[in-house]
Structure formats: structure tokens, C-alpha cells
Amino acid sequence: MAIVTWKPEIRKEEGPAYLAIADALESDILAGSISAGFRLPPQRALASALGLDFTTVTRAYREARARGLVEARVGQGTYVKSIQKAAEERSATPGLVDMGMNQPPKFDNPALQKRMMGAFDQGQPDAQLDLLMRYQIAGGTERDRQAGATWLSSLLPDLTPDRLILGPGAQGALLAITSQLAAKGDVILTEALTYPGMRALCDHLEISLQPLFMDEQGLVPEAFEEACKHMQPKALYCTPTLQNPTVTSMSVERRQAIAHIAQAYQVPIIEDDAYGVLAERSLPPIARFAPDLTYYIASLAKCLSPALRIAYIAAPDMQAARQIIGTLRATACMASPFTASIATRWIEDGTAAAILKAIRDETAERLAILEAHLPPDLVTFDEQAFHVWLTLPSQWRRGDFIAQLRSEGVSVVGSDAFTHHAPPEAVRLGLGSPETQADLETSLKIIADLLSRQPALGTLIV
To answer: Which domains does the chain show, CATH number per domain?
Structure first.
């Protein structure tokens, strides 16, 4: 019997099983738990492992190929494509608009683009050669850590470079911290809907990620305290600002309450502040209220560039910082010195601030397009965020909605990607993925039209 190297968790009662398999595959690829070149299980083996018909899995693989996620190689099997290759193929497909990836929007500013690329050519030749041909310090150079502390000074004014660590992107930072705090069989708490990358990571480490109740302000403190009393959690993972996918932001009072409970039960907090810098009216991180317990992560993917793969980690103390550096050295060796150098130059010469402003301005323009087309009672958004949470009207189930939307040329992410437990009838829209504002408007018109229709009228069965 063939070995099943990948087995998604699906619920047959919640939409078509073939779409659930394809959605799970897309989620794991985006989260980084499945990489380019990974060979999927044979269709019959996966069908047997999931208790499904062979034809259902065949249809799921066909759907994954249609999305550009995988490729079939004659006599060899089905293999995952690189994200870049999939994106290139999608962009080459007429009429297909990808709103699945949550990334900053492209902005039209040739002068700034030229300035960004100029960072590749700066510096003395000897220093450039040393950067390219030598291993660098795990955790980042003093200059890079100072730049990170400067970048985060509005959020963490007391952060010093000796307590800051450079990690290889948010996912690498999460791996280092999570493996430091928890082991196989342990419990980490999180919001009811949470970042797919953390879900994939905990699945990989065989750590139980337990969801907690949320409301319109995010994680509910009482739910956190109740879990602390009965579950003996090793940590709380949360995104207090512009939460992914719900776009909620905790109030200052709620952040203080979460910090107070964590201190009372001595539960470490992993604070993912991927979107904190985006907010012009920044809220203080939980790390400000519980600095001795909080592992704070701020990546540059959402506010500057996903390609940099740089995350700044503020550790609770020097001992924790040394432990994280040791884990990074063992798992990734170091963050890329080349991209760290670019990030540092951008921060030092003001390019980073200009990029951030350009992203904010473009986001505002795209949100205006959104408001012009989608029903306000169905959409949750924030003026600083380029992802949107769309609650579906009662006539639509998310599986049917996603399938029909894709057939009309638009790709979105269903709520299943963000939880194992009772996903709501909702989808996340990435406003930054469409190449242009015109592409975004086209996709939003399609979504608005579909929302106004009945499923029976949106699906042709022959």
C-alpha cells in the first residue's frame, strides 16, 4: 500500500469534499508546510485514507491543477508547483483574478521603485563581497538589530537592539519560538480563527492548537482565562492588530486584560504583529503590558515586501533571546544577510517609510473600490488593512460560493483555512493580490453579482 504523505482534515458535511481537499492543499502551500516539488499521495491511497470515492479525489486533484497549484507528470505522479510559478501561470490566464493571497498591493510609483532597487547597488565593493561570501551572525548584526529597533520604536519605544533578533521571516520566527515553548502533545491557545501558517506549524510539531472564542474586538479575555484554568497551555498565540482573517483589533483595555491573565497564570504570549506598523494610529502591543512573558514578532512581509523574508523578534529577556538564536542557528542557520542589509538600508535612508506610505495610500484607494461594490452589512474591513472578511448571505454555503466564484474567474480563501472547528460561512478577500485596481474592480463586481443571486441560479447542472 502506498504511503500517504499528506492527509488533509476535511468535513464531508461542509460543502463538496473535492473542494475541501483542494482548499486544504492551497492553504498548506501558502502556509509553507508543503513546498515546491512535494509529491502528493497517489489518488487511490488518499481516497482510502480519507474514506472517499476515488472519483472525488481525482476531481480534487483536477481542481488543484486548474488553480495552478500542482502539475501531473506522466508515470511519476502529481507534484506541487512553486508559488511563483503558480502565480505566473495564473496571471497569464485571461480573466482570472487571484484574491487568495494576502499580500501588500503593488503601487504605481516609478521613482520609489527605482529608489528601492538602488539598495542593491549601494555600499563599498569590499563590504558587498564580504556580505555575499561570508556567513553572518545568527540573530543579525548590531547594525541590522539597531535598524529593527528603530523601525519598531513607535510600537515598542523601550526596545533595545540587544533584545531584538532577526529571524528568517515570520514562519521561521514562529518555528523557533513555538518549538522553544511547547513539545509534542502540548497545548497552545489561539483565536477561533487564526493564521494558517501557525496551524500548519503546530500540526507539523504535533502540538494541539486550541481555539478560543472571539467577538468583534477579537479574542475574549474570559475565554482565555477559562482555558488557562483547565488546559495547562504552554502559550497563547494571537494577532491583536488587524487580525488575519477577521480584521479585528483588540482595544487597549482588552490587551491589558489579556496581559493580566497571562501574568496571573504565567502563560507566555506569542504576539504576531504582522500588521501593526500598517496602522497610522498604532495601538500598543501586548508586549508593552506583559514584556516579561511576550515573544513579539513583526515581519516586513505585509508592510514593506514579502520577498525580504525578514522578521524582527523581541524576546522577553536575554536568556530567551539566546535560546531563540540557538534554535534559529539549528533550524535555519540565519536570516538572509543580503535581504537584511536591504531592509536596514531602506530603514536608515527613509525608503522604508516611503514604501509604507505608498502601501497605505494604495490600500486606501482599493478599499474605496471595495466600498463602492460590496454590501456594507456583509463586509468587515479596516481602513489600514488590505484583507477583508466577507460573511456570506444565508442562501450561500462557502463551498458552493467559492466553486462558483472560481468558475467565473475569481479565487478567494474560505474560512476552512483558518480553523479546524466549525468554520463560519465566510471567505477572506485579499485586496492586494490583483495586479491592478481595474482587476480588483472586475473581481468585486463578479463577487457582488454572485452575492445577489441564488445558488440554484449560479450553478448549472447538466
So the answer is: 1-92 (1.10.10.10), 123-349 (3.40.640.10)
pLDDT tens sequence across 254-277: 999 999 999 999 999 999 999 999
Asked whether residue 2 carries a pLDDT value surpassing 50, the answer given is: yes
Alpha-carbon span 239 to 23, nearest angstrom: 23
User: Residue 353 and residue 151: Cα distance in Å, rounded?
Assistant: 9
Identify each DSSP E strand in 222-330 by its residue range: 235-238, 269-272, 294-299, 311-314
Dist CA 153 CA 288 (whole Å): 12
C-alpha span between 138 and 326 (Å, rounded): 8
Kindly compute the dihedral angle of the four CA atoms of residues 281, 286, 290, 292, in this order, to the nearest 10 degrees.
-100
Q: DSSP 3-state helix, strand, coil percentages of the chain (rounded to 5)?
A: 45, 15, 40
Q: Which three cell numbers stand for residue 461?
A: 447542472
Give the other-Cβ count within 10 Å of 306's Cβ: 16
pLDDT in tens, 330-356: 888 878 888 899 999 999 999 999 999
Predicted TM-score (pTM) of this structure = 0.80
Strands 311-314 and 294-299: antiparallel
> Per residue in 59-95, pLDDT tens?
889 888 877 788 888 788 899 986 556 555 555 555 5
Going by C-alpha positions, the residue among 39, 53, 52, 42 that lies closest to residue 9 is 52
Distance CA 56, CA 78 (A): 16
- Side-chain half-sphere exposure of 403, counting CA atoms within 13 A: 20
Summarize pLDDT for 174-188 with one digit per residue, the tens: 999 999 999 999 999
User: 21: which residues sit within 8 A by CB, 6+ positions away?
Assistant: 8, 10, 46, 50, 56, 57, 60, 63, 64
